[in-house]
């Protein structure tokens, strides 16, 4: 078996001394997509943030290990994390526009990220980015490159952020609710880009979502979190078809269903 891209080993996470995630244990192989589901406040985003050292003041992993390609993330120095984040492990947030600088163009921000991690000149970065835009169906890639985030829709900002990730070709992408604020068409475009990233580069993806439809479409495995504890974990087709836990059944039952009027 290949070495796991990322593995959580009996991880506890605390904020100001209060445990919010308990004994999290799971792993992800290259090219796999893990859907992490649960109600708001259950600890889903905290799991992602712990891998990127983004827990903030008062937050800390107090037990266990998080292994990334065989190295213990928790033992890395700040410099070690800086080398890791972006080039090998990337994160896309729910509101991509808020994570982008509002007074700089998309192109300049892509160039800055590429300069930090790639040995590539600005013109080559621009060429490869425009090629990605075109391959992903952007009809106006040059306009996106020259635009400021506030000039683009939420869906376009989210897709531009994913193009930046594709340019860096990380081994792991952490995606925190990347489709929740988007309309149906934009959601499909973002999901298509996630699948392209996985299929083209073998990127493993940890995807936090409230949408069980998203999980059923893209996830290979499902991890169900409730009150900071993993209550169910397994292949998506098994968990979605025959959930073992009552809470998972409740999540699936909460998915809206369209009904036809047979009259």
> CATH superfamily name?
P-loop containing nucleotide triphosphate hydrolases
Name the CATH class: Alpha Beta
Low-confidence stretches: none
Count up the helices. 11
What share of the residues does DSSP label as strand, in percent? 15-25%
Label the CATH architecture.
3-Layer(aba) Sandwich
What is the strand tally?
10
Rg result: 19 Å
Helix content: 25-40%
Order of helices and strands: EEEHEEHEHHHHHEHEHEEHH
Q: Name the average pLDDT.
A: 89
Q: Sheet bearing the most strands, described?
A: 6 strands, mixed
Distance linking N and C termini: 55 Å
Structural class: alpha/beta
Bulk shape: globular
When the domains are counted, the total is 1
CATH overall fold name: Rossmann fold
Strand order of the largest sheet: 6-7-8-3-9-10
Membrane topology: Peripheral membrane protein
Family: Belongs to the ABC transporter superfamily.
Organism: Megasphaera stantonii
Domain ABC transporter: 6-252
Question: Your description of this structure?
Answer:
- The chain has 263 residues and is an alpha/beta fold.
- It has one domain: P-loop containing nucleotide triphosphate hydrolases (Rossmann fold, 3-Layer(aba) Sandwich), CATH 3.40.50.
- 40% of the residues lie in helices and 25% in strands.
- The protein contains 11 helices and 10 strands.
- The strands form 2 sheets. A 6-stranded mixed beta sheet has the order 6-7-8-3-9-10, with helices on both faces. A 4-stranded antiparallel beta sheet has the order 2-1-4-5, with helices on one face.
- Helix 5 (122-135) crosses helix 7 and helix 7 (154-168) runs parallel beside helix 8.
- The model has no long low-confidence stretch (mean pLDDT 89).
């Amino acid at each position: 078996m290949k070495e796991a891209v990322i593995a959580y080993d009996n991880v506890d996470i605390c904020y100001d001394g209060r445990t919010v995630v308990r004994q999290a244990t799971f792993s992800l192989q290259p090219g796999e997509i893990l859907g992490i589901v649960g109600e708001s406040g259950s600890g889903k985003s905290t799991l992602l943030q712990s891998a990127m050292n983004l827990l903030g003041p008062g937050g800390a992993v107090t037990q266990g290990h998080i292994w990334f390609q065989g190295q213990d993330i928790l033992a890395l120095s700040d410099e070690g994390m800086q080398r890791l984040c972006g080039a090998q492990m990337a994160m896309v947030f729910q509101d991509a526009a808020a994570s982008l600088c509002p007074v700089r163009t998309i192109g300049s921000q892509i160039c800055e990220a590429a300069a930090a991690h790639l040995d590539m000149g600005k013109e080559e970065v621009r060429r490869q980015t425009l090629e990605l835009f075109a391959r992903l169906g952007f009809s106006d890639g040059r306009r996106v490159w020259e635009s400021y985030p506030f000039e683009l829709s939420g869906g376009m900002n989210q897709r531009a952020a994913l193009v930046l990730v594709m340019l860096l070709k990380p081994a792991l992408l952490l995606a925190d609710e990347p489709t929740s604020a988007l309309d149906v068409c934009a959601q499909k475009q973002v999901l298509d880009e996630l699948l392209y990233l996985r299929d083209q580069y073998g990127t493993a993806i940890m995807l936090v979502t409230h949408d069980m439809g998203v999980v059923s479409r893209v996830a290979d495995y499902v991890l169900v979190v409730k009150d900071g504890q993993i209550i169910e974990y397994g292949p998506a087709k098994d968990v979605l078809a025959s959930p073992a836990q009552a809470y998972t059944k409740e999540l699936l039952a909460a998915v809206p269903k369209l009904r036809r009027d047979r009259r």
